[in-house]
Amino acid sequence: MTPAPNTRVCSRWSATPCPETEGLRRYTNGYFCPAHAPGTVAPPLPVPDANRLKAAALAYAARGWHVFPITPGGRVSAVTDWPNRATATDTARIARCWEHRPYNIGIACGPSGLVVVDLDMPKSEDDKPKDEWAGEQVSCGADVLAVLAQRAGEPYPDHTFTVTTQAGGTHLYFAAPDGVALPSTSGKHGWKLDTRANGGYVIAAGSVRNNRPYTVTRDVPVAPLPDWLLAALRPATVARRRVPTPVLRDTSRYATVAFENECANVENAPDGTRGVTLLRAARALGRFVASGDLPRAMVEDALREKGAAAGMEDARSVPIIRSALNWSIANNQRRGAA
């Protein structure tokens, strides 16, 4: 059947689910795999490219880096729950995945023990530095990092594994320090300077976007994160407080234990992991809301309070809780209806 104009059409329709991805949405005439972008059907990349990407993914896994598939030619994860799906040890699954389709390669920084400094290029002539950086002679993220190094009295930290991105930017790979959970940041430390650590990922060399590749431009061992960068990236110590967990009545023991455990997880989440922990807690409890075991208002209030106890502001925690509950409730209701 020919789709109507402007209809969103998946590039892979099948009577069975895609073997390497999850989060499939059931349609009347087959399964839609989120790894295959809707829209105009593009021809697959040649098999040699698929083999090249598979070899690269396996090579990164051999380094101990946790890899997962990114949509072919894109930058979005092709699997749900990528922080837990990424692997450095299941080489058979990695091989099957990249034999199935020439996915770009994602590296989950936190599980891989990496901190990647992402130095971007301006996106247009109007993309210029603002605020404190407007008075500096900087034209890109690399210039900003050079200024930060100069202010710290340290050399430019580029003697480490380095990747040039498809847009001409730079990824500097560093080994994360033991016992410190560094968060990912976006522009917090300077114009066109982001960091990818816990909760973040990077597109690995070998991947291609807009017909331009990510390439390794300095293939040397990953250097330890410099002390001065660690000091800049380390999150401020948050004053924590304890709040009582609401007492549940007229609900199952299973739901009660899950509620108490997830509240404790959020309240005790280490720095740099609070947002991810809150997201997982809300998704876990959403299925009990969908089943009628827990009232949604109580779950929202309890998670917000526990997030505040861990140092999260309501402006950040409330949207995470609501979106995660919406997702979990919708998905669990859909499974129950099926």
Automatic annotation (TrEMBL):
Superkingdom per UniProt: Bacteria
DNA primase/polymerase bifunctional N-terminal domain location: 57-229
InterPro entries per the UniProt record, alphabetical: DNA_primase/pol_bifunc_N
The protein, known as: Bifunctional DNA primase/polymerase
Protein source organism: Yinghuangia soli
